[in-house]
Amino acid sequence: GLQPRRARHRDGARLALIAPAALQPRQTAVGMTIAAQWEHHNPILGVKNQAIPQFGGDSDEVASPGLKKKSERKTTARRDKVPK
Hints:
Number of helices: 3
Helix content: 55-70%
Structural class: mainly alpha
Oligomer: single chain
């Protein structure tokens, strides 16, 4: 699950801070950190993208990963087609 990804993300961030220039170029350490962040972030995005088709746009499951329910969205104000 997410625990090994979090550990790699934490270790990559620590490596970016303490890596000596002679042994590990900072760019490589930063690149490893960014890759670890995306490795953790992509499954979260997948969960969010799957919630609406699986449970429906107005379910509590859609709200649990941080998305808005369909009924909680503001409706746009209707405007006249012809300006006055």
